[in-house]
């Protein structure tokens, strides 16, 4: 009963914290709410008229929704790059950022699940994915594995920070014997969610563009570049607008992680390009469409070459120590790298897998306004959730939120 009382107090204090703030904070939350409402309106149209309002067809059945899902799985997995040094290697420099990283993982996973629901057409079909009720088809279906690893990782990233913050809210020290096993498990689980997602594509034999042994490792490399890049940007915002000060050396260490991952990702990209174009076969047509166009169809051409250009520029800049340690340059490069990998892992991976079709027909895909509206709404939802989690966590970390003490804003 006492724990329930403390939990009730935590919820009450959290609600009080997230509903109070500066003018900029309220404007930010109002903007996110507006974008979510626009997304909900677009989604209501999709529910009413079906997936015909999207740009997806029977030729290209995965589009903007699954592209964002694939990218966000990587963002969620990136939290492990903070969890492992903090909880496993005992690196205190990462300790300030680890709860923020795990909050970002929770927001990313919620967005992942939302994009899956949007791509399925509506929430009414979710019962198919429930074991014992729907046709779960475990362990034969890779989709069921994906459902398990994503929800399992979401549980780990909610339960571990919650335990730590719940103890600190009471003014107590978290017991490492309770959360360290979960943290260790989350390290392996983070790798698992990305590998299983990669295997999901690799297992589709009719899509040769995805039948690549490097797909899984490259998923991890790009995830550990884009995810920590986003974490750096988030930490920069937090230390600018809140009293929660992140030390420079923490950001510099995360920047080193981004640099190494970006370099590995670029090496793997070069390896893939060599494999596709040095001795091309008819299975290389999807890659030719993506990088050079086929039969005059070039919808993805500007996207992929922009992505590669940004990727190369960002990686080269990060490689130089002096440039990387200049925070103005670092923040710009993180934006550049994040956008580059979003394009590459989104449109650059998903759409070309369907083009050309099994009979050689080229049917290009262009997202509709409805899809874009729903997508922006889901991204706003993720930002909204993360803002709430971060504001509560920062309040507890700074000692402003304590059990039986009035919250001070």
Written overview of the protein:
40% of the residues are buried. The chain starts with a helix and ends in a 12-residue tail after the last helix. It has one domain (14-397): Up-down Bundle (Formate dehydrogenase/DMSO reductase fold), CATH 1.20.1630. The protein has helices at 2-18, 23-49, 64-77, 80-88, 95-120, 142-169, 176-202, 215-241, 248-277, 285-291, 301-319, 321-324, 327-345, 369-397. Helix 5 (95-120) crosses helix 8 (215-241), helix 5 (95-120) runs antiparallel to helix 14 and helix 8 runs antiparallel to helix 9. Mean pLDDT is 88; it is low at 405-409. The protein contains 14 helices and no strands. The radius of gyration is 22 Å and the shape is globular. It has 409 residues and is mainly alpha-helical.
Compact description:
With 409 residues, the protein is an all-alpha fold. It is 69% helix and 0% strand.
Topology:
Elements: H1 2-18, H2 23-49, H3 64-77, H4 80-88, H5 95-120, H6 142-169, H7 176-202, H8 215-241, H9 248-277, H10 285-291, H11 301-319, H12 321-324, H13 327-345, H14 369-397
Helix pairs in contact: 2-14, 3-5, 3-7, 3-8, 4-5, 4-7, 5-6, 5-8, 5-14, 6-7, 7-8, 8-9, 8-13, 9-11, 11-13
Keywords: Cell membrane, Membrane, Transmembrane, Transmembrane helix
Transmembrane segments: 27-46, 66-85, 97-118, 147-166, 178-201, 221-242, 254-274, 300-320, 329-355, 375-396
Family: Belongs to the NrfD family.
């Amino acid at each position: 009963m006492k724990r329930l009382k403390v939990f009730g107090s935590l919820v009450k204090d959290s609600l009080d914290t997230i509903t109070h703030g500066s003018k900029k904070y309220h404007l930010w939350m109002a903007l996110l709410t507006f974008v979510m409402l626009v997304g909900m309106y677009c989604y209501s149209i999709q529910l009413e008229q079906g997936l015909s309002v999207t740009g997806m067809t029977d030729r290209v059945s995965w589009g903007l929704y699954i592209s964002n899902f694939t990218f966000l799985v990587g963002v969620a997995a990136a939290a492990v790059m903070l969890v492992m040094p903090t909880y496993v290697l005992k690196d205190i420099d990462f300790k300030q950022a680890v709860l923020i990283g795990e909050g970002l993982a929770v927001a990313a996973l919620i967005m992942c699940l939302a994009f899956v629901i949007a791509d399925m057409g509506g929430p009414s079909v979710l019962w198919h994915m429930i074991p014992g009720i729907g046709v779960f088809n475990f362990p034969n279906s890779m989709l069921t594995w994906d459902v398990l690893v994503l929800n399992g990782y979401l549980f780990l990233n909610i339960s571990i920070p919650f335990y730590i913050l719940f103890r600190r809210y009471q003014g107590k020290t978290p017991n490492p014997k309770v959360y360290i096993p979960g943290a260790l498990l989350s390290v392996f689980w983070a790798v698992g969610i990305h590998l299983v997602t990669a295997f999901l594509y690799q297992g589709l034999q009719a899509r040769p563009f995805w039948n690549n042994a490097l797909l899984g490792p490259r998923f991890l490399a790009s995830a550990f570049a884009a995810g920590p890049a986003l974490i750096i940007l988030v930490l920069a915002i937090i230390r600018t607008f809140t009293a929660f000060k992140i030390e420079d050396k923490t950001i510099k260490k995360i920047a080193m992680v981004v640099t190494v991952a970006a370099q590995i990702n670029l090496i793997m990209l070069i390896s893939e390009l060599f494999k596709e174009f040095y001795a091309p076969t008819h299975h290389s047509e999807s890659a030719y469409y993506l990088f050079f166009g086929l039969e005059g169809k070039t919808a993805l051409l500007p996207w992929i070459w922009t992505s590669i250009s940004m990727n190369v520029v960002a990686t080269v800049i990060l490689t130089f120590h002096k440039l990387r340690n200049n925070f103005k340059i670092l923040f710009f490069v993180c934006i550049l790298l994040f956008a580059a990998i979003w394009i590459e892992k989104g449109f650059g991976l998903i759409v070309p897998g369907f083009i050309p079709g099994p009979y050689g027909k080229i049917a290009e895909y262009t997202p509709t306004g409805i899809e874009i509206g729903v997508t922006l709404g889901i991204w706003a939802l993720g930002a909204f959730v993360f803002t709430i989690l971060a504001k509560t966590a920062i309040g507890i970390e700074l000692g402003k939120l304590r059990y039986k003490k009035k919250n001070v804003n």
